[in-house]
Amino acid sequence: MQRTVSLAALAVAMICGGANAQQINVKIGVLTDMSSLYADATGPGSVAAAKLAIADFTKAHANVKVDLVSGDHQNKPDVGSQLANQWFDVDKVDVIVDVPNSGVALAVSQVANQKNKLFIVSGAATSDLTGAKCNANTIQWTYDTWMLANGTGKAMVQTGGDTWFFLTADYAFGYALERDTAAVVEKSGGKVLGSVRHPLNTPDSAPISCRRKPQARRWWLSPMAAATWSTPPSRPTSSD
Fold first, then answer.
1. What CATH class has 146-230?
2. Would the pTM of this model clear 0.85, i.e. be above it?
3. What number does CATH give the domain 2-143?
4. Which of 7, 130, 214, 229 is the most exposed place for a label (fewest CB within 10 A)?
């Protein structure tokens, strides 16, 4: 997050140009999840980290004044878009960062492009942000579903997990992860037998997985929130 905020300030400083070389004013909006499933990993922590990063950056760059605003997108693309429009148009925010939800990030990316403002994504992972929905105003800064698929997904196929069934989060991140991983599995010689989707922030997906669970096989949960089945590996597994 520190590197993200520093990059944002530098990028905005470059846009400001030399007309105001003696004093640069930058306003950053941390758009995050303050109240739901991503709040522990981002939320108040992202805001606190941004404040620390700003303090470090401005200490070394006395001519840069950085203001911070924050908001809760509630994991709703329409709420994220409304906040982004308000920040850019009314509050004069220069750059939006964080946004830990791919659906919200895609919506905010469109707004940033329309307003010709900066959007630095450090929480959303859909590869569409740098693929089909790529634009010149959005920077994806951390990880994406292509990386997860071609790293973890490919490695699982190579170690024997070559028959897959996806338990997919029913929003943009899940769709992209299923699509990217399925492509890697099939390219690597594996098979995708199907998928089922569960709503975002569902605390227990056991009824879905049990309904689909084959009798003679084991389920594993991958680190990518995709469920797989295959011949059980020789090493112990954490769950059946």
1. alpha beta
2. no
3. 3.40.50.2300
4. 214
